[in-house]
């Protein structure tokens, strides 16, 4: 597949949160991400990086501008269509892993596939788990796994749906230094092996260095790409 294919594109997106004092979280940001790219968005707390991720993922709607994933304008979709689109085309990796405690690692990984009314391919799922070094966790529940293992289950869940793009929100924030480095390396490998587009929000410059390129954001504006 053509690595030069643009998977996600944002044009002049802005977002202001209203209240007693309006807070401009994003200011006319434009960017594009190609297939297979691993990109880090780095900035201090309050810089707008989390808002940018939410808007790019269709979890928040920009006041101006548009976001397109695989050529489709996500802001124009209704709630039902957007929810289905996210299940098929967007993967998420969270800082707190976001696993269901009552499900095993394997069950957590296949849950989004089942929610979409599809059947998983067990060999494919186990292949992903082996790549991430968590095949031994197949029948373990989250409380029986380390933080690093739980985060790798979260990565496997995102990869399993073969999404257009994976958004990783501070994925190493709750991990010790060694586990954090392992997770960053695994994201790097996932991008290379699966030609997976990954957009990672982080405040850690060491983690950001694993990406193909780094986007800096400050006060809601993109400083450099």
Question: How would you describe what is shown here?
Answer:
With 225 residues, the protein is α/β, with parallel strands linked by helices. It has a domain at 6-100 and 164-224: Rossmann fold. 34% of the residues lie in helices and 28% in strands. The protein has helices at 49-56, 79-89, 105-115, 122-131, 147-160, 177-194, 205-208; strands at residues 6-17, 23-34, 38-42, 64-69, 72-73, 90-93, 165-169, 197-202, 213-218, 221-224. The protein is globular, with a radius of gyration of 17 Å. The model has no long low-confidence stretch (mean pLDDT 93).
Short recap of the structure:
The protein has 225 residues and is of the alpha/beta class.
Strand content of the residues, in percent? 25-35%
Q: What is the CATH top level name of the domain at 6-100 and 164-224? A: Alpha Beta
CATH level-3 fold name of the domain at 6-100 and 164-224: Rossmann fold
The radius of gyration is: 17 Å
> Under the CATH scheme, which architecture of the domain at 6-100 and 164-224 would be assigned?
3-Layer(aba) Sandwich
Strand segment count = 10
Task: State the main characteristics.
Rossmann fold, 225 residues, four-stranded antiparallel sheet, globular, alpha/beta
Describe the protein's topology:
Blueprint: E1 6-17, E2 23-34, E3 38-42, H1 49-56, E4 64-69, E5 72-73, H2 79-89, E6 90-93, H3 105-115, H4 122-131, H5 147-160, E7 165-169, H6 177-194, E8 197-202, H7 205-208, E9 213-218, E10 221-224
Parallel strand pairs: 3-8, 3-9, 6-7, 7-8
Antiparallel strand pairs: 1-2, 1-4, 4-5, 9-10
């Amino acid at each position: 597949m053509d690595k030069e294919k643009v998977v996600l594109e944002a044009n002049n997106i802005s977002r202001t949160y209203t209240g007693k004092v309006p807070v401009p979280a994003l200011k006319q940001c434009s960017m594009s991400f190609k297939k297979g790219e691993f990109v880090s968005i780095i900035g201090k707390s309050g810089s707008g990086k989390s808002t940018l991720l939410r808007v790019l993922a269709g979890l928040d709607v920009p006041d101006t501008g548009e976001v397109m994933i695989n050529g489709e304008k996500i802001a124009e979709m209704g709630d039902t269509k957007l929810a289905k689109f996210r299940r098929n085309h967007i993967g998420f990796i969270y800082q707190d892993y976001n696993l269901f405690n009552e499900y095993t690692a394997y069950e957590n990984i296949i849950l989004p596939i089942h929610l979409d009314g599809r059947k998983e391919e067990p060999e494919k799922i186990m292949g992903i788990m082996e790549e991430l070094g968590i095949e031994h966790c197949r029948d373990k529940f989250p409380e029986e796994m380390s933080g690093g293992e739980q985060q790798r289950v979260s990565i496997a869940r995102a990869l399993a749906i073969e999404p257009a793009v994976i958004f990783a929100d501070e994925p190493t924030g709750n991990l010790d230094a060694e586990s954090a480095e392992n997770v960053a390396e695994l994201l790097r490998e996932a991008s290379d092996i699966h030609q997976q587009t990954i957009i990672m929000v982080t405040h850690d410059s060491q983690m950001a260095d694993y990406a193909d390129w780094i986007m800096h954001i400050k006060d809601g504006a993109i400083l450099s790409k």
